[in-house]
Amino acid sequence: MMRNHIIEVKGVCKTYESAGAESCEALKDVNLEFPRGKLTSLLGPSGCGKTTLLKIIAGLVPLTRGEVRIEGKKVEGPGPERSFVFQDFALLPWANTLRNVAFGLELRRTPKNDRYKIAKKYIAQVGLAGFERSYPDELSGGMRQRVGLARALAVNSEILLMDEPFGSVDEQTRRKLQEDLLELLKVEKKTVIFVTHSIEEAAYMSDRIVLLTPRPGTVMKVYEPKVLHRSDDPEAARRSEAYLDCVDQLWDILKQYVH
Amino acid sequence: MNLFGKKLPPVASIVIWLILWEIIGRSNVIFIIPPFSSALSAIPDIIKVSTFGEDLWLSLRSFLVGLGLSLCIGIPVGVLMGRFQKVDEMLGMWVNIFISAPISALVPIIMVIFGIGDRTVTVTVFMFSIWTVILDTRAGVRHINYSLVEMARVFGAAPFEVYYKIIFWAALPEILVGLKLAIIRGVRGVIVGQLLLAVSGLGRLFLTYSEYFLMDKFFALLIFILAFAWGLSAVVGLLERRVEKYAKGR
Amino acid sequence: MSLQRTNGGLLRPLSSPYFLRILSLVAVFAVWELMGRFGPNMAIPPFSATARGLFVMLVNGTLPKAYIETLKPLAVGLILAATVGIGFGITMGLSRTVEWFTLMTFVALQVSPMAAVIPLITFVYGLGFTAKMMAVFVLATPGIILNSYQGVRNVNVSLIQMSQAFLANRPQQIIKVIIPAASNMIVASLRMGLGAAFVGIILAELLIAPTGLGDLITYYQAIGDYPNMYATICSLVIISAVSISLLKWVENTYSGARGRKKPEKQDMGDLAE
After folding, report:
1. What is the CATH number of the domain that holds C180?
2. A104-129 residue pLDDT tens
3. Is C249 near chain B, with CB under 8 Å?
4. Is C108 part of any domain?
């Protein structure tokens, strides 16, 4: 039986201990479910633990209490059903685009020819055809993140975890990347968890928005925006009443936490 | 510096010093300094001596083995120190003591333990060169962008894979810097070791030449060794430049 | 988040840096003791014997007397090197012409095994105090020059332009802006110089004529009194490490007091072995 909710987060707490300094409670009693095939945003001010939560789901950071289950199985570490897109791209600076995109497959011991074939396909899909032999320092920020995205798609995992993926690029590039990502997701059906601190981004991209409180982070509210036709005409979507209302409502909720 | 409106490269300044050297040498002002030209022309003379090949080989072997040991032991230690704070705390104090200590002072101890032979010189080279390898490797590892490690783990890298696919390469620019310094210190180590031992190798040659007052041969040997040290550093410099391309993109 | 992993929780007292350092010291001394007592090599005295020798030599005055003897040419040579070195380094930094003439030469000297030249010094200066002083001078000066030069050259151009905008003449620029801005690296160059000076004096003692510490080392080595030989050498390593750390502390306090961040990258010409 396929569950409706592919990821379940139950009672998750995360406390950082450090020798000498006070302990820092990043997350407190987080309970969430993530529906299959939808894009859920984790939205909140800086320091609310959304990246921590994402990395716990990714299996990169151990939790202090609680559990995370994927398809019913407890998360103990990273796994093939989850891939990750990093805010600072995390590309191997000494490898070209082809090798970078193929890196996840390389770690899974996929034979060279196969993995390069797959990599080429996804390089084209993210719009970087022709840049296979380029090195990261020859690419712009937006292009680097496309490489990161292609890498995450190439391993064909069900779940795509994205940590402020468009946070390090300029506004124009960011909009283009958002639109392109939504186009891509129409083809590649994935469950996406998307961390952002931009209200506009969350309103534009998400099927669901989880709002987190500042430290210690906990779920403030789960919001389902009614931004329906965003993929067809992005310009219209960004002007639609539904979108603007959503942005307003999110801002209303969040602004009480801004000093 | 401009001459007739054209910019002169800094290398030209060395030419001027060489000319100066030539003049001072010929004028016999400081009697231990021969003219540069006679030092240069003495180079084939010192090479032709039958024992030179042996002396050179002994020195070279000690140098390479000592340096090789420094790399084989120094890089892993540096990686461990960069990765694990406990290791860093325990070993850091020793590395810091030895990196600025006059290792030459330890040569009598090394001599007494390892005897009067090439093993002492090898150990001396090792003791001279390992500390920069450790310290620079450690610095390289500490400066790694942690996202790269997380990325590798997310995509399923085994712990050991993280070390040789990510950490080593990401730290490589700093490791090469440490290597260049290690080469220079290693050459010093060979010279100092052999000077103090005075039994074999190029160090003994230095002493012999100065004892018998063969100044042009002395400087010929010095030039020879300098050329070697610089040549080796230049090779590492080439490696550095290839790596520099991605060092900036980190 | 840095790559270094730290630990907390239950094992926290064990992770205290002092505990680990003491543990490290104890471990090394224990191994040393065992190697001395049961090791294969006769030439390694146990740690306890060495420590005892060190203590005895300190108390009966042998060691202090030797140090005074050795440190005299060291101090004079270093002071000379510092004066000449800093002066010349600053000049190099201020004058493009001087820099053009001398930079490559000093860089070349820095990476050369100057140790080879020390036996030559005896030809000009004999076997005495002057020779040793010159050995220290020859080894310490290149590093001091290069680092002082680097300090002056690295002064932020904006600062100089700012002073020019406020109509400072060249001497004012030098005295009020450039030298204070370069002073951090100039103080650092002294630390380099001290390290190189220790090397110089040791090599002088072992290669030219042994006095003071060199005398003790060669004497104990000749009669096979390894505990005392090791003790003398260890004392030298300790003294040099301590004095260089002290200088480093002075450096850091100095730059901290002037509100500057401590430089982390390796200093240019940090080649004192």
Report:
1. 1.10.3720.10
2. 898 888 899 999 999 999 999 999 99
3. no
4. yes
